[in-house]
Specification:
Length: about 110
């Protein structure tokens, strides 16, 4: 797993390794020990899967405040998305900053 830090310290771009042959492929997309080794200390409490059937679909920004805050791991299994994170935490050193990245099935990120 390769982890790239972005301009908001808690937001990371993750590339997992993909092992394939004539039968298909295998990839470990989440491992507590691998994430901890990469400095990502979180326990995911929920797993969601969505499909945007129409190209150029825009989905809303989501946020949670304590005690309902949770980490998110976003993956793309087909096509590509431009994913954006905005720091709206008052008092945060990166308050007001945003980061965006293209996540795609082809790049496996």
């Amino acid at each position: 797993m390769d982890v790239t830090p972005l301009d908001i310290p808690e937001v990371k771009l993750i590339h997992t390794r993909k092992f394939g042959d004539h039968r298909g492929f295998f990839s470990e997309t989440w491992s507590r020990s691998a994430f901890e080794k990469a400095g990502i200390d979180t326990d995911f409490l929920q797993d969601n899967h969505s499909l945007s059937a129409t190209p150029s679909t825009l989905r809303g920004l989501h946020f949670q405040i304590p005690p309902f805050a949770q980490a998110k791991l976003v993956r793309v299994s087909r096509g590509a998305v431009f994913d954006v994170a905005v720091d709206i935490r008052r008092g945060s050193p990166s308050f007001g900053r945003w980061v965006g990245a293209v996540l795609s099935a082809a790049e496996w990120n």
